[in-house]
């Protein structure tokens, strides 16, 4: 699509004082042996530590995706290039992703370095982390915090997670994603590409028709849950030290 859909999200835990929000969109291209996916958008985590008077903010940029294995009929997703986490507390984490090559390398690998914001080049790293984003990762070659796991464990992606609880489809609003894409998802799960494609096209054509009606009437589409903000100042301020190509970005504010 020339206008890829944008997914906005908002997750909060009022008791813990934690909010994570953001948006993402994808632009895809085909390289001959893989599908390259450029992710557009960012995430923002905000929380107030116990005893603190001011909240902390963390901006997450998004890595690129590469869908490999197409030539062999066994596609899989790799993360590619780099992403950053920038904190209002004055720290930066740069994460570099790599995958399995023809002759070497491991799938789903990453290396991360944590520095102070003034040392974004990583001359004096505070922590180095290496491992797999689908498995285990460890602090390497330097300082290891006291709360690290056995052997300097940073994170084990196979740690049991809380079950995601959602309302039954029939109780969801008519524009909630799981209800809108129900038939498409069933087609994908059952290997019925024809059903998935027909259902996807039906949804997209209905939305295009609605946009044309709105344009003819001179009205703008208004999302129910999110308000588009043309310039996210927190993103611009915190990522300024990174010298990113994308200096400024829009954001989508949740309608509480």
Automatic annotation (TrEMBL):
Short name of one Pfam family: Oxysterol_BP
One GO CC term, this protein: membrane
Single annotated GO MF: oxysterol binding
InterPro entries, alphabetized: OSBP_sf (IPR037239), Oxysterol-bd (IPR000648)
Region (Disordered): 195-225
Compositional bias of kind Basic and acidic residues: 195-214
Superkingdom of the organism of origin: Eukaryota
UniProt-listed PANTHER family: OXYSTEROL-BINDING PROTEIN HOMOLOG 4-RELATED, OXYSTEROL-BINDING PROTEIN-RELATED
Family that this chain belongs to: Belongs to the OSBP family.
Protein name: Oxysterol-binding protein
The species this protein was found in: Tilletia caries
């Amino acid at each position: 699509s020339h206008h890829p859909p944008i997914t906005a999200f908002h997750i909060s835990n009022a008791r813990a004082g934690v909010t994570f929000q953001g948006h993402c969109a994808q632009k895809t291209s085909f390289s001959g042996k893989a599908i390259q996916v450029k992710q557009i958008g960012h995430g923002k985590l905000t929380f107030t530590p116990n005893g603190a008077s001011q909240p902390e903010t963390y901006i997450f940029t998004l890595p690129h995706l590469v869908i490999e294995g197409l030539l062999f009929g066994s596609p899989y997703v790799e993360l590619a290039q780099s992403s950053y986490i920038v904190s209002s507390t004055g720290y930066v984490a740069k994460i570099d992703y790599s995958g399995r090559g023809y002759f070497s390398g491991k799938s789903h690998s990453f290396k991360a370095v944590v520095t102070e914001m003034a040392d974004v080049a990583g001359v004096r790293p505070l922590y180095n982390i290496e491992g797999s984003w689908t498995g285990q990762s460890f602090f390497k070659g330097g300082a290891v915090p006291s709360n690290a796991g056995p052997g300097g464990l940073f994170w084990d992606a196979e740690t049991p997670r809380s079950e995601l609880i959602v309302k039954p489809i029939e109780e969801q609003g008519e524009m909630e994603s799981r209800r809108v894409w129900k038939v498409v998802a069933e087609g994908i799960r059952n290997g019925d590409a024809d059903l998935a494609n027909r259902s996807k096209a039906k949804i997209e054509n209905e939305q295009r028709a609605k946009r044309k009606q709105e344009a003819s009437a001179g009205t703008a589409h208004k999302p129910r849950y999110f308000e588009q903000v043309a310039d996210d100042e927190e993103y611009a301020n915190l990522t300024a030290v990174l010298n990113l190509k994308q200096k400024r970005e829009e954001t989508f504010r949740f309608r509480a």
